[in-house]
């Protein structure tokens, strides 16, 4: 899968995707992540990319021209799913991340300042937000999206199952995990995990996941139609 990121701050991405799982996925050719500086496409002398909003108001708005030119150059006439990261977008969910992982090409546009000229939406397929809070720009959200989507690209994670097993994929938060030693500073790993049968362990994990979700995110239980008992 190829992912192009259009940003005014490409330096923010330096090294971010080069290590760990995503670094390996890129080395293996599963992912190809590239950043592009929108400013390089500004057709004015001062390489200006923003201007005052028509109608007045605080802050600056990103101008359409550098974004259109950057998008056209990067897309190069090929098909790609184009996403604008903005706090007013639809919330990114694991279900949507999984669907996005099926595209061959994604182009992510990082918004900035007070927003992006509305006409940019004519070259955008989807607006996404990573949560109901406002960040200074779309760069960190783009990183979150890339990481979240990449986990669903076959082969990116060590085992195909892990993306499905973890918190949220079945609508529940993840059950508690333990590793050696069995006793650490007097804190014991639950007996059932040390000696239990596979079926008992599965049952315990499910109960723990339900309990954790009830405590921390009860809304998830309703959303995924889970029984609380
Ligand atoms: N840009 C600023 N805040 C954002 C958010 N919460 N999600 C996506 N893009 C953003």
Largest sheet: 5 strands, parallel
**With helices defined by DSSP (H or I, 4 residues minimum), what is the helix count?**
8
Number of strands: 9
Assess the beta-strand content as a share of residues.
Answer: 15-25%
Structure description:
The chain has eight helices and nine strands. Helix 3 (94-100) packs across helix 4 (139-150). It is an alpha/beta fold and 229 residues long. The two termini are 41 Å apart. The model has no long low-confidence stretch (mean pLDDT 93). The chain has helices at 20-27, 64-75, 94-100, 139-150, 162-165, 191-195, 198-216, 218-223, and strands at residues 2-7, 32-37, 50-51, 61-62, 81-91, 105-110, 126-129, 183-184, 187-188. 32% of the residues lie in helices and 18% in strands. A five-stranded parallel sheet has the order 2-1-6-5-7. Strands 3-4 form a two-stranded antiparallel ribbon. Strands 8-9 form a two-stranded antiparallel sheet. Bound molecules: adenine.
How would the blueprint of this fold be written?
Layout: E1 2-7, H1 20-27, E2 32-37, E3 50-51, E4 61-62, H2 64-75, E5 81-91, H3 94-100, E6 105-110, E7 126-129, H4 139-150, H5 162-165, E8 183-184, E9 187-188, H6 191-195, H7 198-216, H8 218-223
Parallel strand pairs: 1-2, 1-6, 5-6, 5-7
Antiparallel strand pairs: 3-4, 8-9
Helix pairs in contact: 3-4
Bound molecules: adenine.
Adenine (ADE) binds at residues 85-87, 111, 129-131, 133-135, 137-138, 141.
């Amino acid at each position: 899968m190829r992912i192009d990121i259009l940003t005014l701050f490409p330096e923010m991405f330096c090294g971010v995707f080069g290590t760990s799982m995503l670094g390996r996925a890129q080395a293996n050719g599963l992912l190809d992540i590239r950043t592009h500086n929108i400013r390089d496409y500004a057709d004015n002398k001062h390489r200006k990319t923003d201007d005052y909003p028509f109608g007045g108001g605080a802050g600056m708005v990103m101008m359409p021209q550098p974004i259109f030119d950057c998008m056209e150059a990067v897309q190069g006439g090929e098909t790609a799913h184009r996403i604008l990261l903005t706090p007013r977008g639809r919330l990114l969910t694991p279900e949507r991340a999984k669907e996005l992982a099926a595209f061959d090409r994604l182009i992510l546009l990082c918004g900035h300042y007070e927003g992006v000229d509305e006409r940019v939406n004519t070259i955008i397929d989807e607006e996404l937000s990573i949560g109901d809070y406002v960040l200074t720009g779309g760069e960190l959200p783009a990183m979150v999206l890339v990481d979240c989507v990449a986990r669903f690209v076959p082969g990116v994670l060590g085992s195909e199952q892990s993306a499905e097993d973890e918190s949220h994929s079945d609508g529940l938060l993840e059950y508690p995990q333990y590793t050696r030693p069995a006793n650490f500073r007097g804190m014991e790993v639950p007996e059932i995990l040390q000696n239990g049968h596979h079926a008992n362990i599965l049952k315990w994990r499910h109960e723990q996941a339900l309990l954790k979700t009830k405590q921390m995110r009860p809304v998830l239980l309703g959303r995924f139609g889970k029984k609380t008992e």
